[in-house]
From TrEMBL:
NCBIfam families for this protein: phd_fam (TIGR01552)
Species annotation: Methyloprofundus sedimenti
Function: Antitoxin component of a type II toxin-antitoxin (TA) system.
Protein name, UniProt field: Antitoxin
Family stated for the protein in its record: Belongs to the phD/YefM antitoxin family.
Length: 94
């Protein structure tokens, strides 16, 4: 994640905009705390444009994740979920 102070961004705005065209968004900070995010037009459009289908939205989401992304589950937890089980006993209530 790239960061820049607001003052540095103001002094180097044209350079910052050139970076945004080819790189990830830049977080702007004030007194060391993030206050805003600057991104390219294409990144912005990807955020605000509705997906055409649920399947496309899922595929887009998967593309944004990499192997290092934290999705809330550890690899061992995912393996337990993925493991095939013998199923559960079930009967219809009468």
């Amino acid at each position: 994640m790239k960061t820049s102070t607001i003052a540095a961004a103001k002094n180097n705005l044209s350079h910052l905009i050139n970076q945004l065209e080819f790189e990830e968004p830049i977080h702007l900070t004030r007194y060391g705390k993030p206050v805003a995010v600057v991104m390219s037009e294409s990144q912005y459009q990807a955020l605000v444009s509705p997906p055409k289908s649920l399947n496309l939205a899922i595929l887009n989401w998967r593309e944004q994740l990499d192997e290092e992304s934290d999705v809330g589950l550890t690899e061992s937890e995912l393996n337990i979920i993925r493991k095939e089980s013998s199923g559960r006993d079930f009967t219809w209530a009468e």
